[in-house]
Amino acid sequence: MRLADIAQLVGGRLVGPVDVEIVGVASVLDAGPDEIAYAIAPAWIELLRTGRAGAAFLPFDAHDFGRPHIVVADPKSAALRLAAHFAPQPTFDPGVAPGASVDPSATVDPTATIMPGAFIGTGAHIGAGAVVMPGAVVMHEATIGDGSRLYPGVYVGERCRVGRNCTLWPNAVIGADGFGYAMNDGRHEKIPQLGIVVLGDDVDVGAGSCVDRATVGRTVIGEGTKIDNQVQVGHNCRIGKHCILVSQVGLAGSVNVGDYSILAARAGVADNITIGSGVIVGAGAGVVRDLPDGARVAGIPAVPHLEWKRGIANLKHFKDLQDSVRDLSRRLDALDRTGTRGIKGGAPEGSDEPSPGRKGRS
Hints:
The chain is α/β, with parallel strands linked by helices. The chain is about 15% helix and about 25% strand. It contains five helices and 38 strands. The strands form five sheets. Strands 6-9-12-15-18-23-26-29-32-35-37-38 form a twelve-stranded mixed β-sheet. The chain starts with a helix and ends in a 24-residue tail after the last helix.
């Protein structure tokens, strides 16, 4: 695309020649002469100056930038919009392909796509424009909403419900049994998992992630929530709207998470914990108590973020503190050996304590 057309597409103001042609979007460090990058901070602009990018999206007019740029309010959003133009989502021919296994009692919208090797169980429903790719399994009475995509290897368990415009990436599992066992006569006896999973609209579930069905009732993932790869959501959890769960997050059973909360990579949450709305849990944190709305926590166990930062800063002085304590201990031991520990200027008058010149220890 010409830069002039790109500026029109993203609603920006072009500074520089209009006929420069761009073939793609790339990062600040990787962009070549026929690609456009974006900068959101002055330091990024300095990287662009020494890089090879043919043009850039900038949040302000950099007169000394030295190459074409498009001024926009949000450079990242502009870059993403242009990237979507260069790489649109693939389209698929609707219908049930030969080699797909679709139970006669299932309902498949005529505009849906069922690819070879997909399995659709008894009484399942596949909505308009949905795509079920090879190796994906939709068990009996499960529902796939309009426009949703199930990539290869996805499993949607019986009676589970997937909303509209959801994306389930390869090998995501929706509705495996929750991890429930009871000790009986010295053996772990399985507790039947009778509930379902309900995904709201516009939910993404990453590759290899698992959302377990409820023991009874529902495990719920709210509208717009995005789950990264290799995340575990336990049975009876309820995740609010527009949350982010980053790679390797683990939620034990019956965790509640409010709207717009973020759990960073490898965060873990104990069972029956309630996390409020707008909470940020730092990477690798372990949450073992309820968190109020807007909390910012980190560490194991999770504590307020600023408290955790102070603790980390103090660790840098731990060696000096340790050396000081050892030195003080040696000094006290030396005073003990000479019998002068705790004595300054001799014993007080009338005291039974020995003076420095007398035999004995204080």
